[in-house]
């Protein structure tokens, strides 16, 4: 049990700066969703955690200790480029990988059987990997990351290309591993899935973390939005009764979405709305991660680059 700390990583490929001081941590028992646009630096970060790449500066620690070769053997990794031997049989390959990580023959076979069953590829154990569909190859790839019972999981886009049933199976496995105390770090572009599955989310842009926190904490960055509905009121884009200290950002019939310009001005709106008639809805909008992500990335694009700062939304 412990925390995986990614601390101040920088990395350049020639003149291209891929990471500019990336820092965040993944705690024991949590699923951490790592999101960001193409080329933002997710795979580079994960490769450094695994020791496949060396950073120019910065450090990765597990339970307070720098991650060394021995510790890396206890990480389960799913690389973006995948890494199975296409001509090797599924079962043999998983046993081989477990043996490489130091499990006995009997332990390796038992683990292979467990994970192929859990992931629904037990009937394919005798097949060459290349004969499986891409989705089933991905299930085997996850089995390969899990077969040595790792203490940490680092998965690069494990959900890409999976059908909905496979997504459910994989989500269940990640949750079960996290519940067993494993920190689970995975990257994804499927933000709805990340929102549903993750305990915390980190948004990376241009090699630096822009925001880290629970989805609820990310909602507190930027302007909160509220919705108010007074049926029967005028359908002007901004009705005259709406006070000036809010900004109307959307309207659908009598239902208005707005952002307070000053703290508490949503209450002024409520009072003004009640003066118009019956208020059938007044609530803070729970914006989906997809929108929060766009806001964070848009603000980042508008701002002069200061790669050393990240918004830490977590308490
Ligand atoms: N081997 C390499 N040689 C040169 N540049 C690289 C190499 N690997 C990555 N890069 C560059 O580093 C930056 C970060 O890439 P990285 O693959 O880490 O991003 P990513 O967030 O994983 O992207 P994606 O979502 O597309 O997988 C990009 O600008 C990429 O072009």
UniProtKB/TrEMBL annotation:
ABC transporter domain residues: 4-231
Keywords: ATP-binding, Nucleotide-binding, Transport
InterPro entries: AAA+_ATPase, ABC_transporter-like_ATP-bd, ABC_transporter-like_CS, P-loop_NTPase
Domain of life: Bacteria
Annotated GO MF terms: ATP binding; ATP hydrolysis activity
Family note: Belongs to the ABC transporter superfamily.
Protein name: ABC-2 type transport system ATP-binding protein
